[in-house]
C-alpha cells in the first residue's frame, strides 16, 4: 500500500537536482525487487528453463567424452577440445552443408524480398483491372497449409528437372504473400503529398520506388527480410525431400545425416554440429531482436509464406 | 485560325487519351512487377491443392508413367484402417496438449513479464529464442537431454529414486518427450504475443477493477483473461495450424516410431509419399489435413468478425 502511494523517484525529482541519474534508478529497481522478490525468482527460473539446454549445447560441443559420459553430469568442463567439431567434419561434409545453407538463405531471401517489394509497390501504386480481387486471391494463399503442398511441389519440381538443385531448393519458397501484404499495407500508409510532388516532376515508377518509397520503408523491409532469412535457414522438410545427395543437403538436414552416422554414439559430435546450425540465427536474433519479434508475431498468421 | 478553333476541345481529348495511355502503361508495369510473384504463388500454393485432390483419387509410385485412377479407394483404405485411427488419435493428442499447455504456460509467463520486475526485458528475449532456432537443432539438443544414462532428464528420476525411461525408444515415453520439446520451443512465442495483448488493454478498466477491491487473481481471471480472448483465439488457431504440421522434431527424435507411437498425420503424409512411394495414399491423408485446417481457418474468420469477448 505505502509503496503505491509514494510517487516514483523520477517524479519526486523533476529537475534532476538531487543527484546523479543512476542513483534514483537503482533505488527504484531495488524497491521493485523487494516488492516482487518472488516474481524475480520465477523470472530467473523461467530463464533457466531456456538457458540450460543452450548451455548444455555449447559446453557439450567442447567437452571431452570422459566428461560427457559421467554421472552425475559435470556442469563445468575442466578441459576444452575441438575434437568433436573435427570428428563432425569427418563424418559429414559440413563445408557443403554450410555453403548450401548460405546460398539458399541468401538467394532465397533476396529473391523473396525483391518479389515482395515489387508486388507490394504494384498493388499500392499501379492501376490494374480487378486489382482488389487479385489481392484477395493472393492473400488466400496464406490459408494453404505448407505441409499439404509438399507432395505436388516435389512432382512439379521433378517435372522441371530441378530435383537436387539450388533452383529446386529455392523456387517454391520464394513467392511471398505475407511479405507482400505487410509491405503493401506499409506503402499505403506513406504520406501521399510527397509522391504527388514527385509525379509533377515526372519521376518514373522505378525511381519513385528506389529513391522515395524504399528509403521511407527501411524497418518494414528489414522485418520482411529477417523473417525470410530465419525461415530459409531453419527450413527442414522441403530440403529433406528435394535433395537426394549428401552434398546438396542444407545444415538442418545435415544434422539428421550426422545423427544417423554417429550422433547417437557421441553426443559431443552431434552437439558441435548442432551448434553450427544454431549460432548464426542466435547472432541474427541478438542483433535485430526488435524487428524479428514484431515480424514473427505478425507472421504467425501467415506461417511465414 | 483553325488551330485556335480546335484548341479548346483538343487538350481534353489529348488529356483523356494520355490518361488512357498512362493507365495502360501502368497496367503493363503492374503485370511486370506483380506477375512473377503471383505466378509462383499460383504454381506452388494453389496448384498443389487441386493436384493433391486429383492424386488422392489415384494410385501411383512416382515411377509408373501415369497415375491410375482408383476413385475413392485411398479414402476407404484410410478411414477403415486401425492404423489411421491411431495416427489421428496421436495427432489429436499432440495438438490438444501442445496448444493447451503452451497457452496456459504462455499466459502465465506473460503475466509474470507484465509485472516488470528488473531483468524482464532480457528474459523475454531468452524465452523467445527457441522460436528463431532450427527445430531440428532443438530436437538434437533434447535428444541428448533425454538420454537415459547421461541426459539431464535423468536428474528428475534420480530424485525420486527411479531409473530414467529410454524416452525416445520407449513406446510409452516417446510421445511425451516430443510434446515437451514442442511446448518448450513454442511457449516463449505465445507468451510474447500475450504480453503484447496485455500491454494493449485499457488501463482504466484495470484501474476500475482495483478500485472495486478486486485482488490480483480476481482481476486476472475476471477482467484480464476475458479481455484477452481475441488474443487467445488468434493463438489457438495459429498454434493449432502449426501443431498439425509439426515435423522436424519428429524427424530428428523418433522418425515416427517406436512402433508408430509418434506417427502424426504430418509424419504419415511424408512417410507414405517419400519413404514408401504410396503417392495416392499420402495425397488422401494430405486432403484430410487440408480439410481439417480449412474448417479451423473458416471458423477463425467467422469468430474474428464477431470479435470474441466471451
Distance between the termini of chain A: 50 Å
Number of helices of chain A: 18
From the 3D structure, determine the CATH topology of the largest domain in chain B.
Answer: MetI-like fold
Helix content of chain B: over 70%
Uncertain regions of chain A: pLDDT < 50 for 5+ in a row? Answer: 1-23, 301-305
Estimate the mean pLDDT confidence of chain B: 90
| Span between termini of chain B | 78 Å
Strand content of chain B: under 5%
Q: Tally the beta strands of chain A.
A: 0
Largest sheet descriptor of chain B: 2 strands, antiparallel
General form of chain B: flat
Q: Can you tell me the number of structural domains of chain A?
A: 2
Most extensive protein-chain contact, per-chain counts: A-B, 100 and 91 residues
Write the element-wise H/E pattern of chain A from the N-terminal end onward: HHHHHHHHHHHHHHHHHH
Give a brief outline of the structure.
The complex is a heterodimer of chains A (305) and B (310). By secondary structure, chain A is mainly α.
Describe this structure in words.
Chain B: It holds the Pfam family BPD_transp_1. Chain B: It is found in: Cell membrane. Chain B: The chain crosses the membrane at residues 26-47, 92-113, 125-145, 173-196, 223-244, 250-270, 282-303. Chain B: One of its GO terms (cellular component) is plasma membrane. The complex is a heterodimer of chains A (305) and B (310). Chain A has two domains: 22-81, no CATH class; 91-302, MetI-like (MetI-like fold, Orthogonal Bundle). In chain A, 73% of the residues lie in helices and 0% in strands. Chain A has helices spanning 2-5, 9-12, 22-35, 37-62, 65-68, 83-91, 94-125, 131-140, 146-159, 166-174, 178-189, 192-200, 205-213, 218-234, 237-242, 251-261, 267-287, 289-299. In chain A, helix 3 crosses helix 4, helix 4 (37-62) packs across helix 17 and helix 7 packs across helix 11. The two termini of chain A are 50 Å apart. Chain B has 14 helices and two strands; from the N terminus they run H-H-E-E-H-H-H-H-H-H-H-H-H-H-H-H. The N and C termini of chain B lie far apart (78 Å). Chain B is 73% helix and 1% strand. In chain B, helix 5 packs across helix 8 and helix 8 packs antiparallel against helix 11 (229-244). Chain B folds into two domains: 2-55; 81-306, MetI-like (MetI-like fold), CATH 1.10.3720. Chain B has helices spanning 2-6, 9-55, 73-80, 82-113, 120-128, 135-145, 154-159, 174-199, 203-211, 216-227, 229-244, 248-253, 265-275, 279-306; strands at 58-59, 68-69. A two-stranded antiparallel sheet of chain B has the order 1-2. The chains are: A mainly alpha (305), B mainly alpha (310). The interface between A and B is large, with 100 and 91 residues.
